[in-house]
């Protein structure tokens, strides 16, 4: 009973730790002998991602990260609007900025203390074969090696071509022509430490965009949109990079800690489950970073995959449950692609009609039509085959930017506290039945919830919650058979 996790970036690390928490032995494979700590890379960690990490013992990431609560959007020198992020009733901040390197360091420390995780570094995956198990072929400094596991989660990132090729998958989609220059800069910028700033067409980057994120330790991450023929080396040598930075910072002292140039993509595989292998994170989907939907979505992939694999391996459910991983997380990837593509179409209009629309929206300051990136949020499994619909709580679709849908079937449970503890911590121990006073829990592990509280629960209801803290069903006047039917559906129709 072993799962191989291929790739030990934050998504792979999270998957390995979640599986181990469920008691599943893991072989964690990575091609790099040691980590590269350079650069901020993925920096925006959303509340629900922090919640997953906190459940694994990495609550320090929320504490160490720089909390920001305001997203400001400017056109040239004028502020168009600002967005205050909802607190969601949680003790965790809506977003923190923290370098990917620090996240990996903390998760590595947890992995080192987990006896169920066997880490193998310097193992480059070259292929895999499937039958009654998964056989992974690897190249190492000591020659070829083979690893056999019951299942695998592929978290090998955008460059995981060998894995995708072996599974008959490709990252299909588009790449954007313009490049983006990213610099991590250490400087003192009073008043900028708790807000994200997005500039359309600023005087110091005319015709293009700039994004500025605060980070811990008086560091700031600055992203400039630059032409496709941009030459970073030439700009550094000729002093133009210093001029570019000075246009924002003025004469303040600064230090460039890291810099790089990226091209953004919107691409995803056709299948996120191929037999005994589940694809997660950048191995399965790539999106432009505006809105911070990359890493955060990958962590959601990891949690979805981990509990379902654990249920199958424990004999609680049949392999049919694994198909719902593709159904749910591919739908999430499609939504992320739609959201980020709309942002990129606004940032870099591809035709005259879109250019005119953008110009009018910016000139008029029409908040609803200006797209500087819809910030990462959970995907709602309202259409999932695991979710029992409640006609009294119809899902109204994607809520307005910066807001959350009301709790209900398919929605991630709010992070609230009940007498028995934090609801999400309780849910992550297995399926949980939340009841209002007077409801028979039908022999299930349950906790009572206050009527009219943060859930909007009504008298006589029972709320069935999945092991990833999503609501599987809301049952009015529940009977034991109704609870059993919802539980069977929530576990893929094969609960034993």
Automatic annotation (TrEMBL):
Any Pfam family the entry gives: FAD_binding_3
Region (Disordered): 382-411
Any GO MF annotation of the entry: monooxygenase activity
Cofactor: FAD
Keywords: FAD, Flavoprotein, Monooxygenase, Oxidoreductase
InterPro entries in the record: FAD-bd, FAD/NAD-bd_sf, RIFMO-like
Domain FAD-binding span(s) in chain numbering: 2-335
Taxonomic superkingdom: Bacteria
Protein name: FAD-dependent monooxygenase
Organism: Amycolatopsis heterodermiae
Taxonomic path: Bacteria, Bacillati, Actinomycetota, Actinomycetes, Pseudonocardiales
